[in-house]
Every structure is written in structure tokens, then in C-alpha cells.
Amino acid sequence: DAGVIQSPRHEVTEMGQEVTLRCKPISGHNSLFWYRQTMMRGLELLIYFNNNVPIDDSGMPEDRFSAKMPNASFSTLKIQPSEPRDSAVYFCASSSEPYIGYTFGSGTRLTVV
Amino acid sequence: KQEVTQIPAALSVPEGENLVLNCSFTDSAIYNLQWFRQDPGKGLTSLLLIQSSQREQTSGRLNASLDKSSGRSTLYIAASQPGDSATYLCAVRRGGLTGGGNKLTFGTGTQLKVEL
Hints:
The structure holds 2 protein chains of 2 kinds. By secondary structure, chain A is mainly β. Chain A has no helices and 11 strands. Chain A has strands at about 5, 10-15, 20-25, 30-40, 40-50, 55, 65-70, 75-80, 90-95, 105, 110. In chain A, the strands form 2 sheets. In chain A, strands 2, 4, 5, 6, 9, 10 and 11 form a 7-stranded mixed β-sheet that branches. In chain A, a hairpin with a 3-residue loop joins strand 4 and strand 5 (about 40-50). By secondary structure, chain B is mainly β. Chain B is built from no helices and 11 strands. Chain B has strands at about 5, 10-15, 20-25, 30-40, 45-50, 55-60, 60-65, 70-75, 85-95, 105, 110-115. In chain B, strands 2, 4, 5, 9, 10 and 11 form a 6-stranded mixed β-sheet that branches. In chain B, strands 1-3-8-7-6 form a 5-stranded antiparallel β-sheet, with no helix packed on it. In chain B, a hairpin with a 5-residue loop joins strand 4 and strand 5. Chain B is globular and about 40 Å long. The mean pLDDT of chain B is about 90. Classes of the chains: A mainly beta, B mainly beta. Chains A and B meet through strand 5, strand 9 and strand 10 of A and strand 4, strand 5, strand 9 and strand 10 of B.
């Protein structure tokens, strides 16, 4: 298995532009998580899905952020419009039940200028 | 709200030394605890997972212990090597599928440097 695959690895965009981050979880995993990592706040859970259904989106900072999981093998995190304070590394992770732990993707480093 | 703290924030040791990283959590009602390693600019790699009913887990030179009642876990690294240099994070899962879901709350991390 190739693990959790995220794209792009790096994204530089101008303030106000729309940004879409993509994630392919491990096949057979039924939970998917989006995290954001910054120096100031560490790792923060944004949203997670179970069986493609959003379970907890309380970590989504504001309405500019949205996430979808149209099927078991794909999820997107969209920021529209983007702002400089959104600059961070965004990680996707997946897990299954019985639980044997999380598997993280390599992350997308987002820079909004 | 669960809070996870790791001490120290940074640690520098000479090669070959045994060391202990600490993790504490405020809510002892956890389902399990997981230790991760993060190399600079990379994602997180899972090291050890301890279920709430377990006291410790071992993998090679790594040993993780869990004292749920006191809200503490330690990661012991034996005979440290320069390749162990990374940031180590602990994370707790609160509940099962019906007990708060399987989201993790992460600690702030310990940045370890093992010097030659």
C-alpha cells in the first residue's frame, strides 16, 4: 500500500485565491482526518469523517474552510478565499476499526502571500 | 477539554545515552495513547500504540509506558543514536466509536537532538 497520499506537496498562492488540498486514504480505512500544523499552535484537528460522513467539524476555523469526502478513496479540503494566516502544513490521516493507529500523509505545505 | 503536555520541549543528548520523554494528559478517560515521530519537513510516523488496558509497549530500542490513573506516559529510548533526532509527539484518543470518536489530541512535542 502506498500509504496516505496528499497533493500537492507544496502550494504557494496569493491572498484571496481558492486553494484545494487533496487526500487519498489507505484503502480499507474508514476514518479520515484533516489536521493543520503551525509553530504556534501545533497540530490541530480540523475535521474528521467516518464512513465518508463528517463527524466533527468543530475545528474548522471559519466558513472559508470546507471539506468533502465524496467517496471512500478521496477527500478535499478547500479554503476560499485564502488568507496569509492560513499558511501552515496541512496533514491528512486515516485509520480503521479495529483501531491500530493513525497513518499520516506527508502533508501539504501551504503558503499564502 | 483534553490537554496534552510534553516535557521537555527540547532535549540534546550525546550519542549512546538512554533518555526519557514525558507526556501528560488532563483527562484520564482515554481509549489509547500513541507516540509519533516527525522528521523536519515530513509527516508523522507512528512508533507505538498503547491501549488503555496496557501498561507498556516495546519496539526495538523504544519502550512506552502508560499510567492512565495519573495521566502520564513516558517514551524511553535506549542507546540513543543521531538518527533518533526528530520531534516526538504523543497523542491520546478519548473514546471508542461511541465514546467521542477516534480523533486524537496531540501534545506539543519534544524536539530531540542526539549529538555525535
